[in-house]
């Protein structure tokens, strides 16, 4: 882990917040928040053993597996999200991965084409994919692929055993080689150390190019999963990792993701001040609850923030070159 990241993270909180805020204002419009919507288009029955995930078939989390949704149903959800100000529509499928040439993959390509036709950024998370699959997704109109690191390479075997950290890096390499935008972040609160969190940021900052967006999730302990009894993350720990992510990844959107239902309005405001400029919008995140659209719009209005409907980087007057 980089000594400099540790020094950044461990400085007095107000000093850290000031540095993060200054970094944010150099690269972003302070009033813009990207709204992303997340829809589970194929739920449950996943063969992997990710300890945090209720969709694993290896856990007794009570999630009933569903088949892949039809394109018409997905498009209706995407259209409704766009009308609410969402600029990126994300779709998740509970698979280890999907292979090009299969009926499932062809169905996903059809869904991507239909959603992209609405004029909204399209993002999917389908697990591990090959280089050829990444190119096919790009050709279908996919804008962004999400594939989180989850945690540090050193802590990863404590969370997942059915695939490796290197497997994740291989998919990320395939995604970037295909010219897709990368959405890649992680989860805090799984029992990892601060060093693990910073090591994850170090890996993210080393990607070329860095991720377009970095979701910072706080664990939502799901009943029936191995992590169901983990205690909530302290708010100041979350704020510190968001601020450090903003400094380490100045040109990436930092997304305040899962776990927002556990945060007060004031805690979320502090996260936005620290550099978060993207949220998942809508009452459900795959299998976890999320604040309602009305709650979020009221909070953003109270803070003087507004949806960035273009979904792209907004230059401030002193944007660094």
Would you kindly provide a brief summary of this structure?
The chain is an alpha/beta fold and 321 residues long. The protein has helices at residues 3-10, 13-27, 71-83, 103-116, 131-140, 165-177, 194-205, 235-248, 265-274, 293-303; strands at residues 32-42, 88-93, 121-125, 144-146, 181-183, 186-188, 213-218, 253-256, 278-280, 284-285, 288-289, 306-307. Helix 1 crosses helix 8.
Task: Describe the structure in your own words.
- With about 325 residues, the protein is an alpha/beta fold.
- It has one domain (about 5, about 15-305): Aldolase class I (TIM Barrel), CATH 3.20.20.
- The chain has 10 helices and 12 strands.
- It has helices at about 5-10, 15-25, 70-85, 105-115, 130-140, 165-175, 195-205, 235-250, 265-275, 295-305, and strands at about 30-40, 90-95, 120-125, 145, 180-185, 185-190, 215-220, 255, 280, 285, 290, 305.
- Strands 1, 2, 3, 4, 5, 6, 7, 8, 9 and 12 form a 10-stranded parallel sheet that branches. A two-stranded antiparallel ribbon has the order 10-11.
- Helix 3 (about 70-85) packs parallel to helix 4 (about 105-115).
- Residues about 310-320 have low confidence and may be disordered.
CATH class: Alpha Beta
Number of helices: 10
Please identify, by name, the CATH architecture: Alpha-Beta Barrel
Note the overall shape.
Answer: globular
- The whole-angstrom Rg is 18 Å
Given helix and strand content, the structural type is: alpha/beta
- Biggest pleated sheet: 10 strands, parallel
Instruction: Work out the count of structural domains.
Output: 1
CATH superfamily, please?
A: Aldolase class I
Provide the β-strand percentage band: 15-25%
